[in-house]
Design brief:
Length: about 500
């Protein structure tokens, strides 16, 4: 009877916290309950953990997987879910009002409110404790350094694959037109032309394009293509410590010229600048385009979306394109240097070192193989099957989406475990993503501090983003783009450069 009541209370809290998040902490006091009772805090005792987390699905999960995670981690977990679409506003409001929880998922590390809250001492510095836990101790020094702000690590990093992007191409269209898999930007342009002009689907209609893209210069096609032209990852630093933003390099201009040619010749969907990701993927799945640039693992989803629409679809994944044809020039940008954010612990909720250690043990337990399997695939025999090679196959997709998928974005680490996806495309994408790590280009300014960037960076970036789109769409010439860069510099960009250079020098000294 008590268990039923607890389940009902927990499910209700999920919805209640989402609704009243802006009005109250909804944290339940978490691990502070034991401290309040006056009992000594035992790291191995059952914990009450509140977690302010981001929801990437339409609705919160049921308790099915949550109950299993609680058993594995010896904890009662109270989630307060923030929809991904409103995370910036909600997190900023929660930080400002101190309406937090034992664990706060912070994914927007370049957000000024987030950075200022971290630097203000609101959250615990966890660096001194990580090596006390077997799973947390495995977090590399590079990862810890990239996730730090001004040399301090204010949470456990979400460990993401270093460089996940590449190109997914319709192999059946390549074969039909007698084309080879492209390995240079010129060859890719020719494939885009053929997919647009040579009727790759054989229906006699002019209804296909080469590329299908979306309104996103980072996670859409632009930034991945820019890697192929040698563009640095947001910032470049030379041997003398001079910092240069990516949009002031030749590679960035070459990328704009490449996309401008795609647009002018009709080799890309003409509405790409206003297309959402879901619409982009639907267009590909419906056979309206044959080149998709983005996360390589999207290929599995694209093929599944095409079932019943494009049943003959075959895909090939490409991660070795260069603009020169030289292997030595291979490069791919590393999203946030492989950091997906932080699991941070507010001092207002986690009151002392003993409580911090108990919460860190909980996060350490989330990195166990069996908990990872729960948060990724679900319950064996209910959501998935696994073979003797540790290859998992989802057997009930609808149930998995309802009960398991919402937890996947909460995994502190997304790869490196024995269990893996049995799907051939997912296995191939995992292989290419691992290969990408050998060519990943990091952002040297990711962990550096610039006060001007913190206060003006987002607004200033809009100037460059707008100018980039206008250049590609033919609404701005090179002189106009250069004028936008000059405006960025005069409005605060020069100060950002100077501050990053000073911060870089300090770190190197």
């Amino acid at each position: 009877m008590k268990k039923v009541a607890r389940k009902a209370r927990k499910t209700g809290a999920l919805l209640l916290c989402t609704t009243i998040l802006l009005l109250s902490a909804c944290s339940g006091g978490g691990s502070s309950n034991q401290a309040a009772s006056g009992e000594p805090y035992d790291e191995n005792s059952k914990a009450n953990i509140s977690w302010l987390n981001i929801l990437h699905t339409a609705s919160p999960p049921t308790d099915t997987i949550l109950n299993k995670i609680e058993e594995k981690t010896n904890a009662d977990i109270q989630f307060s879910w923030i929809p991904d679409a409103s995370k910036e506003e909600r997190i900023n409001t929660s930080l400002a009002s101190d309406s937090l929880a034992d664990i706060v998922t912070l994914t927007l590390l370049d957000n000024s409110s987030v950075r200022n809250s971290l630097k203000s001492g609101l959250f615990w510095d966890v660096e001194p404790y990580l090596n006390d836990y077997p799973n947390l101790a495995k977090i590399s020094e590079d990862t810890r350094r990239s996730a730090s702000i001004s040399g301090t690590l204010y949470g456990v990093p979400f460990q993401k694959d270093l460089a996940r992007n590449g190109i997914t191409i319709r192999k059946d269209w390549l074969d039909k037109l007698g084309l080879e898999t492209p390995h240079t930007t010129a060859e890719l342009m020719e494939v885009a032309r053929a997919f647009t002009e040579d009727d790759p689907d054989g229906n006699g209609k002019d209804d296909t394009t080469g590329f299908v893209d979306r309104s996103d210069l980072i996670y859409g096609a632009f930034k991945t293509l820019s890697s192929y032209f040698g563009t640095p990852n947001i910032w470049e630093v030379d041997a003398d410590g001079k910092m240069t933003p990516e949009f002031m390099t030749q590679g960035y201009v070459d990328t704009m010229d490449y996309m401008k040619e795609l647009y002018q010749k009709g080799y890309i969907n003409q509405d790409f600048a206003v297309t959402a990701k879901t619409d982009q993927q639907q267009k590909f799945a419906q056979g309206r385009a044959g080149i998709y640039v983005g996360a390589i693992f999207d290929s599995k989803n694209l093929l599944n979306m095409a079932k019943g629409i494009q049943d003959d679809m075959e895909l090939v994944l490409v991660n070795d394109i260069t603009s020169t044809g030289n292997e030595a020039d291979r490069a791919i940008w590393a999203a946030n240097n492989g950091i997906g954010g932080l699991l941070s612990f507010p001092r207002s909720e986690v009151k002392d070192e003993a409580e911090l250690k108990r919460v860190l043990k909980f996060v350490n337990d989330l990195l166990d193989e069996d908990v990872y399997a729960l948060m990724t695939y679900g319950i064996e025999g209910t959501h998935y099957t696994v073979d003797d090679q540790d290859a998992a196959t989802i057997t009930d997709t609808d149930l998995w989406q309802q009960e398991v998928q919402p937890f996947s974005a909460s995994r502190p680490k997304e790869s490196g475990f024995k269990i893996h996806d049995a799907d051939p495309l997912k296995k191939e994408s995992d292989k290419l993503i691992a290969d990408n790590a050998n060519y990943a280009v990091l952002n040297p300014a990711y962990s550096l501090e610039s006060e001007t960037y913190n206060t003006q960076g987002s607004e200033l970036q809009k100037t460059i983003t707008d100018a980039t789109y206008k250049y590609i769409l033919g609404e701005l010439d090179r002189a106009g783009f250069d004028a936008a860069v000059e405006s960025w510099k005069k409005s605060g960009g020069d100060a950002i450069i100077a501050e990053y250079e000073a911060a870089y020098k300090e770190v190197q000294s």
